[in-house]
Design goal:
Elements: E1 2-9, E2 21-26, H1 29-37, H2 43-50, E3 55-63, H3 65-74, H4 77-80, H5 86-99
Antiparallel strand pairs: 1-2, 1-3
The protein binds zinc ion.
Length: 100
């Protein structure tokens, strides 16, 4: 069991790549985030760094890769993001707690 995490970009990577979020999975989150910040974590964050776009870790869940896949497949990371969607954030927290 590791951590599924959500990164929020301060702006989209480009006009053609409008996603402002990255969902990932890590066994050791701190190391993973350090890799993202040094540009070696994923293509997505590498491009963000090349374009001087800042990103922050905005949410994390205890889980495994199946949770990562489930969240990615929902294709609405923005709804999970407390920065983009502060009102929904608390509702999602409640849903999550009911699941457990
Ligand atoms: Zn966001």
């Amino acid at each position: 069991m590791g951590t599924v995490y959500l990164l929020h970009l301060e702006k989209p990577l480009s006009e053609n790549h409008t996603s402002q979020h990255y969902i990932g999975y890590a066994d050791r989150l701190k190391e993973r985030i350090a890799h993202h910040e040094s540009g070696t974590g994923a293509r997505f964050t590498q491009v963000a760094i090349e374009r001087n776009i800042g990103f922050t870790l905005v949410r994390k869940w205890h889980g495994d890769r199946s949770l990562e896949r489930r969240l990615k497949n929902q294709k609405h990371a923005a709804r999970l993001c407390p920065v983009c969607n502060p009102d929904n954030y608390h509702n999602h927290e409640r849903e999550k707690n009911n699941d457990q």
